[in-house]
Amino acid sequence: MFIENQSVNPAVHNICIKIAQRCVWVIQACLREEERIEAVREFYRVCREEIDKPPGREEEL
Q1: I need a surface site. Which of 28, 31, 38, 56 has the fewest CB within 10 A?
Q2: CA geometry: angle at 8 spanning 27 and 4, to 5°?
Q3: Predicted structure pTM score
């Protein structure tokens, strides 16, 4: 699990933002305008958690 206010490699941050935005784009028709920002945050969190998992623990939820 990552710490949200801990700095991260800029490349990792940028790729997580791109992934999150693309995920929201897929479901945006189901979201109200005010829900989109929160959805990007949640997808970003999931992306960072997956990237930050220690080696060998990739299959855990």
Answers
A1: 56
A2: 65
A3: 0.77
